[in-house]
Design goal:
Order of helices and strands: HHHHH
Strand content: under 5%
Helix content: over 70%
Radius of gyration: 13 Å
Number of strands: 0
Largest sheet: none
Length: 98
């Protein structure tokens, strides 16, 4: 139960971080969502492959939907943010810690 909460929290943090990096690079909505999916699901998938386990994010499609929803919400909020670098560092640190 607690591992699931930590996993979802990490997905949210990395998804938002990917969106902010995409907005900073002036990507469109589709590019930002793709970057968020790669950022949030790619790290866990790589970790599971190295540990010789089945990547749960590829089996569980709920994670993909969660990442897309978080990416869309963050994209529209990010248009109002001035200093991306501080938020990117905070979200990356939170994602790594979770």
């Amino acid at each position: 139960m607690i591992l699931e909460v930590l996993n979802v929290s990490g997905l949210i943090a990395f998804s938002a971080s990917g969106v902010l990096k995409g907005v900073k690079s002036k990507l469109d909505l589709f590019g930002v969502v793709v970057l968020a999916v790669i950022t949030s699901l790619g790290g866990g998938t790589l970790r599971d492959v190295i540990l010789n386990r089945v990547p749960m994010s590829l089996v569980n499609e709920r994670d993909m939907y969660l990442v897309i929803v978080v990416a869309l919400i963050t994209y529209f909020i990010a248009k109002k943010v001035e200093n991306y670098l501080m938020f990117i560092k905070i979200l990356d640190a939170a994602g790594l810690a979770l």
